[in-house]
Every structure is written in C-alpha cells, then in structure tokens.
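User: Teach me something about this protein's shape.
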Amino acid sequence: MKRSYVPVALLLVVLMLNIICTQYMVHQYFYENYTNTIIAAVINVILFPVAFVIYKKGVNVND
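Assistant: First, the predicted structure itself:
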C-alpha cells in the first residue's frame, strides 16, 4: 500500500500556523493589545480540532 504524505504536510502547515499564532499572541499580550491577544487565542483553539480532523481522516492507525 502506497503512503500519502498530503495529510502529513497539512498537519505541518497547521502546526506552523499554531506556532505563528502563539508567538503573535504572546507579542500582543506583552504590548497590552488584549483584543488581538484574544483573537489569536481563538484562532489557536480553532486550529486544534482542524488538526485532529486531518489526523483522523488522513492517518490510518490500523496500517
């Protein structure tokens, strides 16, 4: 059975977006821009289920 690397690439993209949002959130919190901090935190919370769905659809655990 041939492996597909598309789900792995998508998970890497989601991970990179998560890191970027976390860094942005910390930066905005440091400069007391709390609205932007909350927006970045919400984006981080949304990215987790997206990564979970990509993992469940793309990675077959029974292989």
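Now, about its shape. The helical segments are 6-30, 34-58. The mean pLDDT is 91. If you'd like, I can walk through any region in more detail.
User: That's plenty for now, thanks!
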